[in-house]
Design brief:
Number of domains: 1
Number of helices: 3
CATH architecture: 3-Layer(aba) Sandwich
Largest sheet: 3 strands, parallel
CATH superfamily: Alpha/Beta hydrolase fold, catalytic domain
Strand order of the largest sheet: 2-1-3
CATH topology: Rossmann fold
Mean pLDDT: 95
Distance between the termini: 25 Å
Shape: globular
Structural class: alpha/beta
Strand content: 5-15%
Order of helices and strands: EHEHEH
């Protein structure tokens, strides 16, 4: 059985670096894992109900990279808070 790559989507105003521990644990268990490279400041343009397109672009880039790196057709998305809603 092929293990699907996993992409972690950080929560609102969270940084990718806050999820490195989780990513390391998943990798130790043989699950290829990436984190959407969101910085705290990347969330600022979304405040007040404005467009989340910049975050979606980062998510799309990360998913495409994971698919290519692992020769996969799909990924598991693990989203925290707003990251789950966006996913």
């Amino acid at each position: 059985m092929m293990v699907l790559p996993t992409v972690i989507v950080p929560g609102y105003f969270a940084r990718a670096t806050e999820y490195t521990g989780l990513a390391a644990i998943l990798r130790e268990r043989g699950i290829p894992t990436s984190i959407v490279p969101i910085r705290k400041r990347d969330w600022i343009p979304t405040v007040g109900g404005r467009s989340i397109v910049p975050i979606l672009r980062l998510l799309e880039q990360t998913v495409k990279q994971a698919l290519a790196e692992h020769n996969a057709e799909q990924v598991n998305l693990v989203g925290h808070s707003a990251g789950g809603w966006i996913s």
